[in-house]
Amino acid sequence: MNLRASCKIALIALARNKVRSFLTMLGIIIGVMSVVLLMSLGAGLQESIKQEFEKLGTNSIYVMPGNLEEGFGGLQGSQTNKLKFSDADDIKKNIKTVVAVSGGIESAVAVTYKGETRKVVSFYGVDPQFTEIADYKVQKGRIFTKSENNSGKRVVVVGTTIVEKLLKGAEPLGKEILVKDKKYKIIGVLEKQGSMLGQDQDNSVYLPIESARRQLNFDRPTWIIAKVDNTQNITETKSDIKKLLLKRLSGDDFSVLTSEETLQVVNVILGVVTSVLAGIAAISLLVGGIGISNIMLVSVTERTREIGLRKAVGARPRDILTQFLIEAVILSVVGGIIGLLLASLGALGLSFFMKATITPIAIILAFGFSAMVGVIFGVIPAIRASRLEPIVALRYE
Amino acid sequence: MKPIIQAKNITKTYGEAPSETIALDKVSLEINQGEFSAIVGPSGCGKSTLMHLLGLLDKPTSGEILIDGQKAQNLHENDLARLRNQKVGFVFQSFNLLDRTSSLNNVMLPLQYNNLISASERIKVAQKKLIDVGLPDRMGNYPSQLSGGEQQRVAIARALVCDPAVILADEPTGNLDSKSGIQIISLLESLHRKGKTVIVVTHDLSIAKKTNRVISMKDGKIISDKKRIKK
Questions:
Q1: CB within 8 A of A190, min separation 6: which ones?
Q2: Which of A66, A75, B200, B206 shows its CA 20 to 30 Å from the CA of B67?
Q3: Would residue B26 count as lying in a domain?
């Protein structure tokens, strides 16, 4: 018997029990949907982080508090940040291949306008040279200049959420807002960036780093970025910076990473998280497969006489095996396709909140997995059917 | 005359010794081409078991069966399937049609497993057989839409569709009213007249009378085997 005829028989058999077939498929649908959706979220997250890094350029070296190179120690390290702003100055002074250095501050502050306060606003103290590297675009006004930074001028660049929510849409340029109870004049508004991981990226204020240091009592940098003259010198510069900082700090107090390494660290962490989540979701696929196996066993029992008859008129064991296996595979693959479609819809819906990318790997995995589930879980009932003795099957009531 | 089926000293037992049940006890039988035979006897005499063995649906505990000269002994399951497909046509007491499947598709079922007849010819062959059994206008009907007699005629068309060497009918009228039963028997008679070898298992002596050979069984043994020239 050829494959087309087998598929036709399987489809007819499945169509006879529409509700049952659908419920059986549901297990696979949910399984494939959750696996694909989680993988697409992981991939989307990786992509957006990669884009963030690309904004910063590839010839940058980062110094961060804590030891990030050995496991996750950095998370504790950040609580006891031992970096100083003077480290940035030392790097600039002592290492020739470094053309520019800046500390950066990342924190959360309260911002007030006309008596109204937003309690949690992302705060960035940055060097204007590095905002150029970071490729931020202004929607309105401008970014503070080098001289404004050096002189610690009381100016601020804000995100669109601040304009919308705090200023209630009023013309922002020239207005004065209170950052940590100190007055700053708005000179620019950044273009809308949207949200990442549910966090509003536009609920933020950017101050010249010098202003932040002098006026707002930030005494330690959250990071130090060093810009290297040439990409070729990155490795050498990295070890120079390390040597320099080791004079003052111990190896566990800081990490020196190139953009690429930082991206790798993030990718490794995200990869692990994604795989763990997808693995958990795959359990539902397993349960779906058991459902298929179960329903196929029921089907074989119900159709024992049919199997006997088919054998009596000349079906080989292989023909019966194929017939039932194809049924199981159709159930799981159709379930897989529906799951994939739902996952695409889900990813589309999620894309309003965060980036979700359905990768070809996710699609291949979804198909491969569901077909595999069909074969693995369909094979036991199918073998059972194929081994039935024709006379025993025919006598079955 | 050429023997179509030969059974040599076949025994069939169920269960384990010493408490085994002997269904067939060293039975030997030869069915020749073109014969219309009846296997008769009380229930439990082993006539159905014998028929299942002759039709290769079951395997004898010992002894040898040949169909159309081919030994069925030690054949692989696939070869047995091929022999059942090409050499034997079964007609069952309870019809055994696939429900929610049209008459035509029921008749085509054995052809799905037969690669001697091309896919394009299958419908034509099946249609021809349904016309032969007198159901030209029932091809699209499901078994549930047919009377018992019509269902059995579909089953006979199915048994004929691969042009087998022998038709084995197990109590073909057992589930039918007497009028339909007579029609089915005359259909089998007409097959015999066209040269088919037909074996009917029955406990109905009025059917046995229509055949030209009556094999009587009791307690797993053949107690008489009468051939006669029909008037």
A1: A136, A137, A138, A139, A157, A158, A159, A160, A202, A204, A206
A2: B206
A3: no
